[in-house]
Amino acid sequence: MTPIRDRLEAHARGLGFTLFGVAPAADADGFDRYEAWLDAGYAGEMGYLHDYREHRRHPARVLGPVKTVVMLGFEYGPPSPQSHAGKVAAYAQHADYHRVVWDKLNALRDWLAAEVPGTRSHGTCDSAPLLERDFARRAGLGWVGKNTMLLNASRGSMFFLAGFLTSLELPPDPPQAAGHCGTCTACLDACPTDAFPSPGVLDATKCVSYLTIELRGPIPLELREAVGDRLFGCDDCQTVCPWNRFASANPGFPPRPDLLALDPVELLTLTREDFASRFAGTPLLRARRSGLLRNACVVLGNTAGAEALPALRGACGDADGVVAEVARWAVGRIEAR
Ligand code: B12
Ligand code: SF4
Ligand code: SF4
Q: Which tens digits make up the pLDDT trace of 34-49?
């Protein structure tokens, strides 16, 4: 009979995970790096990374009887073209991946429990304190590039990672021993905000992804211009990476046409209720109305002409102080042009 490891891999691939590797449930190799990164202040306001800090040392803090950490990759592929200014990062042009990936992880858990009764398993994708890139490297899925992405030599980096922790003992795959960045520095050179203090280390407080998605409150003045036309997230350190010539779209996870046609001027007219219904089931909800309208003002301040002024002047009176302040900044920028 085919070994359970291979049957599990076949089942995971059938569910749409194109990358599969097995790591032992051991201390995270990168835990010291993680602590140093937090202590340097690079996590900014992402308090959840400080909470349960110690839990990331060993996966047993997530699932007590864990013996094996299976790491999986689910591709979202390169960005699709959009009809207006205001780029949405490739991963966010689709339905919210969390629900999609969690459903697949639950299906994998149920399948394994039926195959090997008594097994306990728990799947996670951003939902548990697990250093996902660290375990992915350990499971042989790829190396950590100078842009800090987990990169695979046949698939690039445009995929989500998920961890499947199980009490079943499986033979581990060899860890990825070496990186394949060589002398390349394309990602470091392309970063619009110069967010890498050194290769392989990201100061999240400068990263456009953090500034447009995670940060509540105003984007620091000195970084607004560099945000450019990025409305939600950023892909620059991935799109310039030569390994992403191998990144491919996932027919099982198509982009949502409405997210490819977002108009930052129109976004400024969204009420709280409109925002909730318009973006239900999408990753953009994470920025909340305040964050998304703030970002729309920054994009318009950087790219638009006088045609955006009426909407921006309307936003100057927004009850949300963050939106109102950035709208005034954008009006000033357009008038100065
Ligand atoms: C916080 C976070 C962010 C922060 C900080 C990102 C960062 N680079 O640290 C912000 C908001 C900026 C961010 C942005 C993005 N993110 Co994010 N993010 C996370 C999250 C929740 C935690 C990451 C973390 O702990 N960072 C702290 C640093 C220190 O840890 P780390 O990056 O994981 O790196 C570890 C290893 O690489 C290891 N390591 C590195 N080199 C080496 C070498 C050796 C020898 C060893 C032993 C270990 C080692 O050390 C580190 C500590 O363990 C993870 C999900 C998760 N649970 O892991 C998603 C995650 C990393 N993000 C993801 C994505 C898709 C993105 C974006 C592409 C989204 C976008 N388009 O806007 C950008 C990419 C920006 C970038 N260049 O990283 C994916 C990445 C998939 C992949 N292929 O790598 C993840 C895994 C989410 C998921 N479930 O798929 N993100
Ligand atoms: S996602 Fe954009 S801003 Fe963030 S590190 Fe990469 S290139 Fe820089
Ligand atoms: S762009 Fe070059 S240096 Fe950066 S991750 Fe890709 S191969 Fe490595």
A: 999 999 999 999 999 9
